[in-house]
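User: Please work through this fold.
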Amino acid sequence: MCYIGHNTEAFKSTCGGLFPFEMKDFSPFTTLKHWFADGVFRRIFANAGLLLTGRAANGVMALATLSLMARGLGAENFGVVVLVQTYVLVITGLATFQSWQALIRYGAISLKSDNPVAFQNLVKFTTLLDLMGILAGVLIGYFGAPLVGPMLDWSPEVVGYAQLYSLLIFFTLIATPTGLLRLFDRFDLLTIQASITPLFRLIGVAIAFALDTPLWGYLLAWFAAGVIGGVTLMWLGWREAARKGRLKGMTWSLSGLSQGHDSIWKFSIVSNAHTSLQLVTGHMAVFLVGALAGPTAAGLYKIGKDVATTLTKPAEMLNQSIYPEFARLGSDNAWSAFPRLIVRGGAVGGAVGLALLAVCAVLGQPFLTLVFGAEFAAAHIVLVLLVAAATLTIAGFSMDPALYALGRPGIPLQVNVFAVFAVFLPLLLWLGERQGAAGAGFASLASSAVIFTAMAVFTTGQLRRKIANAV
């Protein structure tokens, strides 16, 4: 590991071999100006900026939607709606494949070698994975609700709502279209599409609030918005691939789909398992808090989680924009460029996260009271803990996609397996019952700290070996 202290020469000797960037001037403004002179680094933040421009508006709409729901339903009923939504989100995440990761990694190689048949086979392969996952998700969601409902004290009526809401999974065939748009650098279209679901969700919830509908009205609003957003994304992704001429002459023969893409099955399974584990510390946490401490605690955790997510969206945007760049650099065997992007991206992201953490610590409680009502002010401690956890995620955002581009998705998976099962779940089960939503916040922070430290160690080691072998 390398540390930045007052001894510049020591830092150079420790980190200079792995992180070959100019270190003559540590002035923040000079350093940032030098970093953004790098075309790849500048493009990463430009693409993230495009996504973030739309997500800033989406964050405002999401908070307005939650505010209307919280005030229209009250803490307990709000928690019930949150648990139904989270149930479907967890099933979707666990059952469906995140095939966009394989599409970007292997698609960049196919485009680099100008192999249209290999690219089309890859698209068919990832689409087949999407279809398999969606069918499994709908079946599990529909028939699993009567089994899960009693654990959460759902009434038969709420169980029926959960079954119907599970049909939304049919409209989540979006992994391959998402990968196509990212691979073709169409972050502008992703930005536009990303605003559609929050906009229609806000409109639907506002109508439900105005009509003073019961639970089903709010769930219907979320369902309709999800359908509209999913269908739009599918159309945009496939249209862009056709416009680029990448689907010309494509047939839907299913023979030899994985040929020419070494280890794609292993990559897809491992990357999907990794993403599914991340759900445990995300959506699954809401679900477990509800099971341990009731729907009101789940609602408080959901409020804190969503506000924290809105404030820390830059990490997700940067992750989405940097992965294609790593994939392109990897296809050119430009491994020595990886450390520079990791260090610079982490420094900028970490600084943003710390600033947001300070704002939440000072202004979080009055904000929650103003937007959601006095009974949701108790979510302040959860908000601070989750933003602190997200700050670590932002600082280390580039390590995960770097390892994927290096063809080592198993490392993030192993790190997350350890963090989830050895840190997060034990702490959540121990603290969740005693401290409710706050206990889940402490568990998330501890898990994020373990993941950040382990990922830094493994990423450094992998890059050292890759760069040494390339010399």
